Amino acid sequence: MKRVNGIVALFCVCTYVCMGFYLPGLAPVNFCEKEVAKPSCPSNITLYVNRLDSDQSVIPFEYHSFDFCIGSENESPVENLGQVLFGERIRPSPYEISFNEQRQCKLLCEKKYNNDPLAQKKMWLLRKGMKLNYQHHWILDNMPMTFCFINQQNQNVCTTGFPMGCYVTSDGKPKDACVLDSRYRQPDSYYIFNHVDILIEYRNMSQDPNFLEEHVGGRIIRIKVQPRSIKHEAKDKLDCAVTAKPFPIKSNEKPDSIIYTYSVVWQTTQVKWSSRWDYILDSVPHPNIQWFSILNSLVIVLFLSGMVGMILLRTLHRDIIRYNQLDNEESDILPKNMLYS
After folding, report:
1. What are the tens digits of pLDDT across the range 7-60?
2. Residue 61: pLDDT band by 50, 70, 90 thresholds?
3. Which among 34, 93, 227, 291 is least surrounded, fewest beta carbons within 10 Å?
4. How confident is the model at residue 127 (pLDDT cuts 50, 70, 90)?
């Protein structure tokens, strides 16, 4: 009987320890609506932006390097050493997202451009980013937001980055993301993706019979983003319909302003939180390995290791010489009969 009680006690202790152990940032978080929100079940969800990169360039850019709408830098999360070495630059965004709150054609900000050199430089960098197909990387609830589309082989593909825009060549040939919409066909034009449709799928925990804790809120399972180019007439005349006209920017022209908008749609799903990464791992065609960042990190590590090794060798060499000198001095001081006795 004592043995059985001991086994039960050991099982309870192990269960308690396992329940108390989790990797930082990987524990499930329940979100609640504003009316019932509390510290253990928040309502507001911060959308984080990361650096932009491109397969056509080895140089990444921070999010605020481009003239996008930016949030407060004071709420930036603390990055670990690996994120810093690999060039991650995670910053909070100005997108306002609350649990289960639908948003339709919400104004984010308006960027105006005049004839001063700084504005021309900002527009030049935007055009360069669109031409080289630079990709956004957004994060919500410690999970990357995915961009899903049908490729030319009629396959559904999801990637963890989405383009900031696309370019149509002077002979009318669409490049990169411009091939996904037949309306992006104006020659020698850039199409800035100034609107995003965000689809968030969540599991309703208030009706989950398998949930042993308090039945409140929900857990985010999937986040998908669909970027679009929309030509808004003014801030008070927003049109985010599917049939809205795209926003072409000619190479020899400069727009007066760019209006950024977004929409958020919430949907329920029966997928469990533990399986929420499956659709990303199954649909991503291949890993986008940043060889330049990896090589740069390896060079830095080897250089620092070489410096430390040289310092250690020089220190040990001096110590060995000092010890040999002490031995020689002792040999000279001691009588010969004591040395050979």
Report:
1. 444 444 444 334 333 344 567 888 999 988 888 899 999 999 999 999 999 889
2. very high
3. 291
4. very high
Q: What is the DSSP string of 37-57?
A: -BTTB-SEEEEEE--EEETTE
Q: In the predicted model, is pLDDT for residue 280 greater than 80? A: no
The span from the CA of 120 to the CA of 304, in Å, is 41
pTM of the prediction? 0.73
Q: Which of 210, 215, 165, 170 is nearest to 192 (CA)?
A: 165
Q: Structural domain boundaries of the chain?
A: 27-296
Q: In three state form, how does the secondary structure of the chain look?
A: CHHHHHHHHHHHHHHHHHHHCCCCCCCCCCECCHHHCECCECCEEEEEECCEEECCEEEEECHHHCCCCCCCHHHCCCCCHHHHHCCCCCEEEEEEEECCCCEEEEEEEEEECCCCHHHHHHHHHHHHHHHCCCEECEEECCEECEEEEECCCCCEEEECCEECEEEECCCCCECHHHHHCCCCCCCCEEEECCEEEEEEEEEEHHHCCCCCCCCCCEEEEEEEEEEECCCCCECCECCCCCCCCCCEEECCCCCCEEEEEEEEEEEECCCCHHHCCHHHHHHCCCCCCCHHHHHHHHHHHHHHHHHHHHHHHHHHHHHHHHHHHHHHHHHHHCCHHHHCC
76-115 tens-digit pLDDT:
665 555 555 555 778 999 999 999 999 999 999 999 998 8
CB 99 within 8 A of CB 43: yes
Q: Which two tokens stand for residue 315?
A: 């220190």
